[in-house]
Amino acid sequence: MNARTLRIGTRASALALWQARHVEALLSKRPGAPCIELVHIRTAGDAQREVPLWQTEGRAFFTREIDAALEQGTIDAAVHSLKDLPTALAPGLALAATLARQDPRDALLTRAGESLRQLPPRARIGTSSLRRRAFVARIRPDAVPVELRGNVPTRIERLQRGDYDAIILAAAGLARLGLTQHVTEFLSPEEFPPAVSQGVIGVCARADDEATLGLLRALDDAAARLAVSAERSLLQRLEGGCQVPLGALAEARGDTLELTAAVCALDGSRELRARGTASASPCRSLTPAKAIALGERIADELLAAGAAELIAHERSRLAVAAP
Question: Does the annotation mark 84 as catalytic?
Answer without folding.
Answer: yes
